[in-house]
Specification:
Number of domains: 4
Strand content: 15-25%
Number of helices: 17
Distance between the termini: 48 Å
Number of strands: 24
Oligomer: single chain
CATH superfamily of the largest domain: Periplasmic binding protein-like II
Helix content: 25-40%
Structural class: alpha/beta
Length: 701
């Protein structure tokens, strides 16, 4: 965990597709312009100096092009040749598209490799497992969306890349290899770091109102000043917050916030504690479960002390009494209700824009370190969620694995060198810091503190550790996982003692999770951990139907990705005690099917029973929506969801029949902007109809 794990600036669910092989809705052939060739030449040369590409001899380059298949679950935003099916335009941002084209060209020129980027046909967890089981891996390089890693690791379908570790030894490549897990290297990065997932943000303008934060010359002492001077420690943070709290204690918070008065530090205690753990050189998982380490216990206790003294307040709790309300602290920060918070990184731009509209500026600062830790200590880190991962599937030959990894390295180096106009990853990180801050709405051009904000953020980007507990289901998936244990210990829920005691009592709840994965990885067998798929159809029945005569099996279909169709009988279906076939109504979970595959994976699914009055002759009641959607120019009318034009549609017994709406399209022309009256017809279960006319506005993009 001392190794810096890096996260990426692009979206989490994307894939690339090579034009020469076809991609999604596009049929273009990959080409490289003269300008691209110039950029490619420069960046490829830089990459070649720092990668195994520089050592590749002509004899090692295949004489015939080799296809390396690179798979993922979303193709639109990273495929440089993918086009929108309607507009025909490229879906990838142009600067990223040019970088991707340059990377493809570099790999082709250096290794004679064509990278074919593919979208998984169904679900990554199922597609990878079934293809490896069949001895025919669907791809060579598999992108895993962040969070699916424990499921995939538990299938034992990934290669241990330890034999290829030497490819990732220098500064230009080491960031691509994620830390060792369970004694092996299974996961790769393609993501140069962005900010930690919940960074510490601060309202700088609100700080300027606090007299106690001024120096002898009346200038505000900002957190960035303290950090750059090596003074940003836990005790200084506490003192700083106490000063802020004293000033704002009786200042009314803007409407819409959780608290009546402005808070110094309103946040989600889970992310504050996680940040403190990493700042203290600790981790919840560091090759093994280390949530009981001295570093973790100290960090959790520090946050608890801030909470006990009401210097840190939670952003509201859900009904369980220990789980913070998701992103509420971020929202309150955007409203100006708190000076500090750990803000969800995907919300920073929005919250900053709200503060900007109010004439205020925000900053992002490192989470402080413990007092006994040196500023330049390698243990002082910030936490990140790790982003997506990439892996090599079992069944790919050693020769192709090595070629795939070399191509992967050269591709992403060239991509970032081209994108940033740089020759090293460190230069890219520094260049991206300013762009990211601008995207977040941080005032980096402020004469007073703009430069210090960039310095602080650059430090964060270069000092991040991955929160592997989030990648291994130790975070919040199940009873007594880490965040649940943390919250219960903070609030004394379910008899939980203080964290240092509770973690020892419940450590096995965490270690059992990792030990189960480790045990599977020690075997040679692929482990089927995917439950069967059950499809359902609502049962529509007339009131008075004899339940004994209903064949409930007709409303279910069960199929397993390995076993194929799964047979079941009426004995596998349980009827709800609330189901009343004599009274009209919609009965949720009226019938529930439970099935299992040959590996013991179980799946339950339920249907809704619609019981209606067949003798009803009253027309349905239909009400149009108050705010009608607009229709984009040239929209295919078959794709318009007419239910969105209705506020409600019910039959005489109150049954929702909105889904039965049809539209008279004879008056609608989606090829011409304008407003058109469209008649909508709703039919209830007894065949009665009602109509309403809505004004449909066709608008150009």
């Amino acid at each position: 965990m001392k190794k810096r794990a890096l996260a990426f600036t692009l979206s989490a669910a994307m894939v690339l597709s090579l034009a020469a092989c076809g991609g999604g809705g596009g049929s273009q052939t990959s080409t490289t312009t003269a300008a691209q060739q110039s950029t490619t030449a420069a960046t490829t040369a830089a990459a070649a100096e720092t990668t195994a590409a520089a050592e590749t001899t002509a004899a090692e380059v295949p004489s015939e092009p080799v296809v390396i298949r690179y798979g993922t679950h979303w193709i639109n935003e990273l495929d440089p040749n993918f086009t929108d099916e309607v507009t025909g335009e490229y879906t990838m941002a142009e600067e990223n598209r040019q970088a991707a084209l340059a990377a493809l060209a570099a790999v082709k020129e250096t290794y004679n490799v064509d990278i074919q980027f593919l979208q998984y046909p169904n679900d990554v967890s199922t597609d990878l497992m079934t293809s490896v089981l069949a001895g025919d891996p669907i791809v060579d390089l598999a992108l895993l969306w962040g969070g699916v890693e424990p499921t995939i690791l538990s299938q034992n379908v990934l290669q241990d890349l330890t034999p290829y570790k030497s490819l990732f030894e220098d500064d230009e490549t080491s960031w691509m290899l994620k830390d060792s897990l369970f004694g092996g290297y299974y996961l790769l990065n393609n993501e140069v770091p962005q900010v930690t997932n919940f960074p510490l943000v601060v309202n700088l303008t609100m700080l300027e109102e606090v007299p106690g934060l001024k120096d002898e010359n009346g200038k505000t002492i900002y957190p960035m000043d303290l950090f750059l001077n090596g003074e940003w420690t836990w005790s200084k943070f506490r003192e700083y917050l106490e000063t802020v709290k004293a000033y704002y204690a009786n200042v009314a918070a803007p409407d819409g916030g959780k608290y009546e008065f402005v808070q110094a530090y309103e946040t989600d205690h889970r992310y504050a504690a996680l940040a403190a753990v990493h700042a203290n050189g600790g981790a919840i998982y560091d090759g093994a479960v280390t949530a009981d380490s001295e570093e973790c216990i100290e960090a959790v206790q520090f946050v608890k002390e801030l909470m006990d003294d009401e210097i840190l307040v939670d952003c509201g709790l859900y009904d369980d009494g220990f789980t913070p309300e998701w992103t509420t602290g971020s929202g309150d920060f955007g409203l100006g209700c708190t000076v500090f918070t750990d803000c969800a990184n995907w919300l920073i731009g929005w919250e900053a824009s709200q503060r900007s509209d109010a004439g205020q500026s925000i900053g992002i600062v490192p989470w402080p370190r413990p007092d006994d830790m040196a500023f330049d200590s390698e243990d002082y880190m910030q936490s990140t969620n790790g982003g997506n991962s990439v892996a090599v599937l079992k069944g790919v030959s050693p020769e192709k694995t090595e070629l795939a990894l070399k191509s992967y390295i050269l591709y992403w180096q060239t991509y970032y060198y081209t994108l940033g106009g740089v020759s090293t990853i460190e230069e890219y990180r520094e260049a991206s810091a300013q762009k990211l801050l601008q995207d977040y709405g941080v005032d980096i051009f402020n004469e007073t503190y703009g430069d210090s904000l960039v310095e602080c953020f650059t430090y964060i980007l270069g000092h991040m550790n991955t929160n592997y507990s989030g990648l291994l289901n130790l975070w919040e998936h199940g009873d007594w996982t880490w965040t649940e244990l943390l919250g219960k210990s903070y609030y004394g829920i379910d008899g939980a003692a203080s964290y240092d005691v509770a973690i020892k009592q419940h450590l096995t709840d965490l270690t059992n999770i990792t030990e189960n994965i480790a045990a599977i990885l020690k075997t040679d067998e692929v482990h089927d951990n995917q439950a069967p798929n059950v499809t359902t159809e609502d049962a529509v029945l007339t009131a008075g139907t004899d339940g004994a005569g209903v064949d409930w099996t007709q409303y279910f279909t069960a199929e397993d990705s390995v076993d194929g169709p799964i047979a079941f009988t009426a004995d596998d279906i349980t009827l709800s005690e609330d189901l009343d076939l004599t009274t009209p109504g919609a009965y949720e979970k009226a019938a529930t099917l439970k099935v299992a595959d040959s590996s013991g994976n179980e799946k339950e699914a339920s249907i809704t029973a619609i019981v209606y009055n067949a003798d009803n002759t009253a027309a349905p009641t239909v009400e149009a929506a108050e705010e009608l959607p607009t229709v984009a120019l040239n929209t295919e009318t078959s794709g318009i969801d007419w239910t969105t034009f209705l506020a409600s549609a019910t039959d005489a017994d109150g049954l929702d029949v909105k889904s039965s709406v049809t539209a008279d399209l004879s008056t609608l022309d989606t090829t011409t902007p304008g407003t058109y009256d469209v008649t909508l017809t709703v039919t209830d279960y007894a065949g009665n109809t009602a109509q309403t006319t809505v004004s449909v506005e066709v608008v150009s993009e």
